[in-house]
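Onboarding guide, step 5: your first structure request.
Type a short instruction followed by the sequence, for example:

Predict the 3D structure of this protein.
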Amino acid sequence: VMKAEAGVPDKIEEWIDQKRLNEQKEEGEQMSVLRELYDNRDRKLEDYDRMVKKISKAEQRANQIQEEKDRQIEKLLEHIRKSEPDFRLE
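The system replies with structure tokens like these:
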């Protein structure tokens, strides 16, 4: 009876240790999944930020081009008005 009783606490400790190890392993796996999700989210946010910057630069460039076209048209109209005062745009 003494030997059986002496062995019971060892089995309980082993079971507790195994349970603790399993919980730690499970927590580690959960943390790994969370880390991967956050890394993916961060990459997507960085990609989004890069796209926003590219779009912004493209819009700025398009605006500059349009402004330059408008200036050239205005110069042409000015030149036409000076050289042909009777010319009218309908």
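Each response can be followed by summary notes, for example: The CA atoms of residues 20 and 86 lie 95 Å apart.
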